[in-house]
Amino acid sequence: MSQCVTNCIGKIRLHGFLNTPDKAKKENPVDYLVHVRKLALPLYPQFGTEPNLYYIPPIHVPHPYLEQMFGPGVENAIHAYKNAKDDRTLKGLMVLFGSMEKVLHSFKVDKGSAYGYDEKDNEVVRVPVTEPVYIREFYDKKLHAYRHNTP
């Protein structure tokens, strides 16, 4: 695994293998983002460089600039990203980002959890799709500590 993936503070990087569009597998995390959902896009596709890096376009950048950078599919990618909270599979895949230091060869989302598998189809990670929320008392009598609940 590359150091940029391992050390990413925001846990927003995903490393994996991309199949050609005609051989895309929806259970492959990178194929799912690039070929199935078309959420991750190549940078400057008009140059025909066939990149090995794909990006989820930022949502707070002027759209004409994004279209220049990512091509005509950028509007659909932004729409998919903004609505990821309503797409159980996409949301599950997004929580797998940065969840471990191995390449995930496949994934599935089932019963509130996202599962990642290695090349031998062994489960290597399981994370909840939605993190639980705990509301704590402002003052903890046991620890004699004040706490703030930050949304």
Short synopsis of the structure:
This protein has 151 residues and is an alpha+beta fold. Helices cover 25% and strands 16% of the residues. It has one domain.
What does this structure look like?
By secondary structure, the chain is of the alpha+beta class. It has one domain (3-146). 25% of the residues lie in helices and 16% in strands. It has 5 helices and 7 strands; from the N terminus they run ααββαααβββββ. The strands form 3 sheets. Strands 3-4-5 form a 3-stranded antiparallel beta sheet. A two-stranded antiparallel ribbon has the order 1-2. β6 and β7 form a beta hairpin. The longest helix is centred in the middle third of the chain and has 9 residues, at 74-82. The model has no long low-confidence stretch (mean pLDDT 87).
Unreliable stretches: none
How many alpha or pi helices?
A: 5
- What Rg, in angstroms, do the CA atoms define? 18 Å
Domain unit count: 1
Biggest sheet layout: 3 strands, antiparallel
Percentage beta strand: 15-25%
What is the count of β-strands?
7
Strands across the major sheet, in which order? 3-4-5
What fraction, in percent, of the residue positions are helical? 25-40%
Q: What overall geometry do the principal axes of the alpha carbons give? A: globular
Taking the alpha carbons of the first and last residues, their distance comes to 33 Å
Structural class, judged by helices and strands?
A: alpha+beta
Order of helix and strand elements from N to C terminus: HHEEHHHEEEEE
Mean pLDDT: 87
